[in-house]
Amino acid sequence: MADKKIIKIYLYTRFERLWHWLQALMIICLIITGLEIHGTYRLMGFQTAVNVHNFTGLSWLIMFAFFVFWLLTTGEWKQYLPTTKRLFLVIRYYAWDIFQGKPHPVQKSKGAKHNPLQRLAYLGISALLLPVQMITGLLYYLYNDLSGALPLEVLAVMHMLIALFLLNFLIIHVYMTTTGHSIFSHIAGMITGWEEIYETTKIADWETQATRKK
């Protein structure tokens, strides 16, 4: 595909980009302060870490509600509908083909921003991990007022385990941003909204079935 012309399309809206970077900053802040609260290191002091963690967590919860509202009202939720078509080709690409210089089996396009593997990953995180993390964090925050809805030890373990999963995803996500046409092309796309794709890229039928109907 090296002989095909690369063009740019406007793929990510301003709100989408703002939410992406704000969420990234909030998750990083929550991980840093959360680890200090657990006594992993001393950076800003226990009480300050608690205050920053609580404020950031509540802000994240409010922002997430706006994000869900945006998904539902714009129809962008359809971008996250899971599919197994070409899934194993994408897995093979990241596990082997990418190191052989082969093209990605599913190119990005306006109606299909995420490949099948991304859809599954983002759906699992957004629909499962993030809500559970927010709920456990809120129960943790309101523990004294709720008279122990769950044992504190259970909340603490669940909250920390999901935080470690999110940290693992964050590391993988940063690595995956370097696998575009150039090392910074995907990052540039999430900053400017303009993503590089091949000029001949077309949306496959299985990708458009969900986006044709509003």
Automatic annotation (TrEMBL):
Membrane topology qualifier: Multi-pass membrane protein
Gene3D superfamilies: Transmembrane di-heme cytochromes, Chain C
Keyword Coiled coil: no
Limits of the Cytochrome b561 bacterial/Ni-hydrogenase domain: 12-193
One GO location term (cellular component): plasma membrane
Leader sequence residues: none
Primary localization class, coarse: membrane
Ranges annotated as spanning the membrane: 21-41, 53-72, 120-143, 155-176
Record-linked InterPro entries: Cyt_b561_bac/Ni-Hgenase (IPR011577), Di-haem_cyt_TM (IPR016174), Hydrogenase_cytochrome (IPR051542)
Biological process (GO), any one: respiratory electron transport chain
Domain of life: Bacteria
Keywords assigned by UniProt, alphabetized: Cell membrane, Membrane, Transmembrane, Transmembrane helix
Cell location: Cell membrane
MF-aspect GO terms: electron transfer activity; heme binding
UniProt key word Transit peptide: no
Official protein name in the record: Thiosulfate reductase cytochrome b subunit
